[in-house]
Amino acid sequence: MTEKINTDDANFVEDPRYKQCNREALLGLGLGIANFIWWFAWGYGFGSQPVEGYTYILGFPLWFFMSSIVGAILFTVLAIIMVRKYFRDMPLGPLEEDDLKELQEGGREHG
């Protein structure tokens, strides 16, 4: 059984976690898409040349080194920066009045 919520009700307070969760999901999706574009451009852009034209770094072809090694390190660092800078620590259970005020004022700083 579902209960319909009337958002026009004066006592209704939208959960501020939804907005933050949507923001975090979009940031994660954007980083994932950027990672795929990086990997695809280096892997298929430079990896489609004849082998005789390859440049090697640490014994790896440039296209593999950039797409798989540098890309993994770069996007791991970017994910860490993104989480520390833009993600917020939020309680997952029911909100208390203090939690609600704290989230409406900008949330808790992460890390």
Automatic annotation (TrEMBL):
UniProt KW Calcium keyword: no
Keywords associated with the record: Membrane, Transmembrane, Transmembrane helix
Superkingdom of origin: Bacteria
One Pfam family of this chain: DUF997
Listed transmembrane segments: 25-42, 62-83
Protein name in UniProt: Sodium/pantothenate symporter
Natural source organism: Dethiobacter alkaliphilus AHT 1
